[in-house]
Specification:
By secondary structure, the protein is α+β, with helices and mostly antiparallel strands. It folds into 2 domains: 125 residues, no CATH class; 52 residues, N-terminal domain of TfIIb, CATH 2.20.25. The chain contains 6 helices and 9 strands, in the order E-E-H-E-H-H-E-E-H-E-H-H-E-E-E. The strands form 3 sheets. The protein has a 4-stranded mixed β-sheet, with helices on both faces. Strands 7-8-9 form a 3-stranded antiparallel β-sheet. It has a two-stranded antiparallel sheet with strand order 1-2. Helix 4 links the parallel strand 5 and strand 6. The N and C termini lie far apart (62 Å).
Length: 207
């Protein structure tokens, strides 16, 4: 059944105009649908799987008057899947499909999502986009993400996150937790400027 709105012509006659909206199909892409099936098989009834969750619904910005320029970083963006505890719908694990890139490369958008979830203490699982997924492979990626987040949480400065996150010593903007991915400091957590790589500001996290 078509949706219509009412308008009035110059002659004062009411007419029906069809609204310019159509159902977007498909709701899930082929990789998203394949991953959803694998997640459903993996988690069974342990979690509720929510698809395409808006970042605005999941996160809020601390000190919004000071950090108003960060709204556009999460505006109109979503995480592909969010696993929630079924009784209270508490967010537990984020799942993000990523396009394949070179082993040593990291997309800025992927890095931001990783930093965002890590700062909030929420595991984010990066899963390469594909048409089929083995549950055993997905489980391994989940284990890596959960371990990484747990280790980062253990190294956080004591006190609440809102009060303890430093501001960048270079540009004065907000900092987020990052993890060294290579070199002698691989695996160690530090605070990096949210505008990295434009800004090199960093602050060490002492255990």
């Amino acid at each position: 059944m078509a949706n219509h709105s009412t308008s009035i012509t110059k002659e004062g006659v009411q007419t029906k105009e069809e609204l310019p909206f159509r159902l977007r199909e498909p709701f899930l892409s082929t990789p998203e649908a394949a991953l959803f099936r694998a997640l459903k098989q993996m988690v069974a009834e342990r979690y509720v799987i929510c698809a395409k969750v808006s970042l605005n619904e999941l996160f809020y910005i601390t000190r919004p008057n000071e950090n108003v320029h960060f709204f556009n970083k999460i505006f109109r963006k979503h995480v592909d899947f969010l696993l929630c505890e079924p009784r209270m719908f508490k967010p537990e694990i984020g799942v993000e499909l990523v396009k394949s890139i070179a082993k040593d490369e990291t997309r800025a958008s992927d890095q931001f999502m990783d930093d965002l979830f890590l700062t909030a203490g929420l595991p984010l699982v990066h899963i390469p986009s594909g048409d089929h997924y083995e549950v055993s492979d997905v489980i391994s990626l989940f284990q890596l993400a959960v371990t990484k987040t747990r280790d980062a949480n253990d190294k956080k400065i004591s006190g609440s996150l809102e009060d303890s996150v430093p501001m960048c010593p270079v540009c004065g903007k907000m900092m987020v937790l990052r993890t060294n991915r290579s070199g002698s400091l691989a695996g160690q957590v530090y605070y990096g400027c949210i505008d990295n790589p434009k800004c090199p500001g960093m602050v060490a996290v002492h255990s």
